[in-house]
Amino acid sequence: MRLGVVGLGRMGLPIARNLVSAGFNVSVHDTVDERMLAAAPARAVSDAVELAASVDVLITVLPGAPEVEKFMTAEVIAALDGVWLDLTSNDPRVAERIAALGVEAVGAPMG
């Protein structure tokens, strides 16, 4: 199973590292290059669409609804041939709008 983790801040980076340690094939994406390098040996992917196209499960761990809306574009959704697992403390209305665009979604916000 190929996993993609988007958002490598205080919560996302440890999640990515733990998934790598557990033996998963992990790719990562963040707007800050240094964060992607810190997730090594996970594969850093600077293009969001490329990341979505290369994974079975796309995990978002972003600060909030605005960042989720900015990342989950129509192009990202179209490229994703898998499930979106949103760990963001997201606005349910935003998550529903994105899911309605044709992505299988599971919301599991962390507090």
Which labels suit this protein?
111 residues; alpha/beta; 6-stranded parallel β-sheet; 6 strands; 39% helix
Textual characterization of the structure:
This protein has 111 residues and is α/β, with parallel strands linked by helices. It has helices at residues 12-21, 33-38, 48-53, 65-71, 74-79, 92-99, and strands at 2-6, 25-29, 43-44, 57-60, 83-86, 104-107. A 6-stranded parallel beta sheet has the order 3-2-1-4-5-6. Helix 6 links the parallel strand 5 and strand 6 (104-107). The longest helix has 10 residues, at 12-21. The termini are far apart. The model has no long low-confidence stretch (mean pLDDT 95).
Topology:
Layout: E1 2-6, H1 12-21, E2 25-29, H2 33-38, E3 43-44, H3 48-53, E4 57-60, H4 65-71, H5 74-79, E5 83-86, H6 92-99, E6 104-107
Parallel strand pairs: 1-2, 1-4, 2-3, 4-5, 5-6
What would you report as the Rg, rounded to the nearest angstrom? 13 Å
Uncertain parts: none
The count of strands amounts to 6
Q: Residue share in helices?
A: 25-40%
* Sheet/helix structural class: alpha/beta
- What is the makeup of the main sheet? 6 strands, parallel
H and E order: EHEHEHEHHEHE
Mean model confidence by pLDDT: 95
Brief summary:
With 111 residues, the chain is α/β, with parallel strands linked by helices.
